[in-house]
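Take one protein record:
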Amino acid sequence: MQMQTTTSDCERSGETPCDSSSAVSVRAFHPWITDELFADTRRIWSKAYGRVLSDEEVVEILGNVRRMAEAIMFSRRRRYQRCM
């Protein structure tokens, strides 16, 4: 037996998260993720993937981008400190 899922219009559009409580619960664990950042990330990456991303996927993408930025900043700081 296959489960049926329903998709609302806003989920199909990929514009914003339909349930703002999902973004709120995400911010409880990741206070640096604003509602706007969450919505923008979902909208942009959903277009790239050709489907609406789940809350978990959005959080994973944001976490990966943050870790990459931190690694780049750390590397640049080390390089700058060696030059001094």
